Amino acid sequence: MLGLIGAPALPLGFALLGGLWSGLNSGWGFTVRRSPDGLRLRHGLTETTSQTIPPGRVQGVTVAQPLFWRPFGWYRVKVSVAGYGGGSGGERSTALPVGRWEDVLRVLTVAAPDPGLDGDPRAEAGLTPAGLMHLGLHGSGTEGGFRHIPRRARWWFNLRSWHRTGCTTTRTLLVVRRGRWNRSFQTLQHERMQTASLNQGPVQRRLRIATVTVGMAGAAATVPDLDEAEALELFALESGHAARSRRLADRKVVYVRATTVG
């Protein structure tokens, strides 16, 4: 009888052990250091991986903590880098396959060196860059200036995670967080925004909520079901950044063409 009950759990157990081994194997001996070329990473137990991520091409950063990693205090960091795509892009974009929170902060100091809190009232109230990132992964509600899905919309779309799903902005970053069980947050740099869109379906219209989606080279983020007024404010902010980014890109193209012709 016990064998019949335990048999279905064996595949799940093997999958869990396999996931733990994979994370331990790939993240073993992780080191990160700055260099003139960018962020130099080295990690691995049975197979050592070394790579360099140029900071000037980092568009955004995603920090995640799957449910089964919580007891071990493990996290994963991925970066969205202009020019990475297809093939081995997924592996190359992994800045930290598995590590502790201290390792996450070390990567963020290079990949997102300017959190944009200088002069911010939240900083004057005691919010630090590390505190903002901690709220992005572990926080909920409006602490730290986060906006989340309004209570009136929770029954329709996000019953379990309505108070965690949301975003905040600083002078330099858009910070988007999501997930109650598998937590994650994403930072995207305002100056690299290329597109912004505002969407509202029929149910959202009745609930007075809307969804904002932003995009850049190699990265995108969606902030779902915000209050209408907050969604419009966020859309106006990011579309303004996107317009400025496009104008700067156009000027660079014109300059390069003029230099080539000359």
What does this protein structure show overall?
With 262 residues, this protein is an alpha+beta fold. Helices cover 35% and strands 30% of the residues. It has eight helices and 13 strands. Strands 6-5-4-10-9-8-7 form a seven-stranded antiparallel sheet. A three-stranded antiparallel sheet has the order 1-2-3, covered by helices on one side. Strands 11-12-13 form a three-stranded antiparallel sheet. Residues 86-90 and 252-261 have low confidence and may be disordered.
Provide a compact summary of the structure:
With 262 residues, the chain is an alpha+beta fold.
**Helix/strand order:** HHEEEEEHEHHHEEEEEHEEH
How would you characterize the largest beta sheet? Answer: 7 strands, antiparallel
Q: Strand arrangement, largest sheet? A: 6-5-4-10-9-8-7
| Helix count from the secondary structure assignment | 8
Radius of gyration: 21 Å
Span between termini: 84 Å
Low-confidence stretches are 86-90, 252-261
Strand content: 25-35%
Quick check: average pLDDT? Answer: 81
From the helix content, strand content and strand pairing, which structural class follows?
Answer: alpha+beta
What general form does the structure show?
globular
- Topology, number of strands: 13
User: Helix coverage percent of residues?
Assistant: 25-40%
Task: List the defining traits of the structure above.
262 residues; disordered C terminus
Q: What's the structural blueprint in terms of helices and strands?
A:
Blueprint lengths: L1 H5 L2 H19 L3 E5 L2 E6 L5 E5 L4 E8 L9 E7 L7 H4 L1 E6 L1 H11 L9 H4 L4 H10 L8 E2 L17 E4 L3 E6 L4 E7 L5 E5 L2 H6 L1 E8 L2 E9 H34 L1
Antiparallel strand pairs: 1-2, 2-3, 4-5, 4-10, 5-6, 7-8, 8-9, 9-10, 11-12, 12-13
